[in-house]
Amino acid sequence: FAGFSSVYSGRASTATSGSKTSRINHTTMNRLLMKSIDSPGFEKAFLHDMESKGESMLWHQDTSSIDPTTVLLRLKKGHRLPNGSYCSPRLIWTDVRKKQNHGFEIFDIRSLDHASMVNLKDFPYAIPGRSILVYLNNSDTFIFEAATEMDMVRFVRGMRLVIARLTRSLVMGNLEGSCELLDMEDPKRSRQASFRNSEIDWSRAMDDVTDAMIDN
């Protein structure tokens, strides 16, 4: 029994040590991530990631579903429409299994925040610490769940900064900042014509996006 006790004690000690190390590593990672979120380059890095790679999340559509949909969220730049006007940037997501796309213009968003227990009362399988509530101007709501709590914080902070930056640029008349999330390329137009009309296009794009912001 003495030998068994010694072995058991050693295992318990090792488990405790491993648990402490895990907590320390988790805390260190959280601190590093928070530091990166607060860094001056976070917004541009987030925007680049959302445009190029996207963010994998769970989409809780049905309140009683134990199997939420795996989706890839991305930011899609506004672009020139067939009638010559420009649409606003959109937050889109793709259903990985069904290959279906969904989305809405970012100015349709009324609020985007961490989902509380109250918000998730009809979604018992959504993890509160990782879930995001998106509330639109038309009263539609969407529940997404990030892989970790820090991924949730990063997404919420990043989206808020992107929307705030675009709004600020529009209000201040910052042409370059306003068109940062717009695809200004027109493959049907020659390079020379594009150069001559680029300033006109930028101004029109800025006006169209401003109108979309005001309408919402």
From TrEMBL:
It comes from the Eukaryota. Residues 1-22 are annotated as: Disordered. This is Uncharacterized protein. It comes from Pseudo-nitzschia delicatissima.
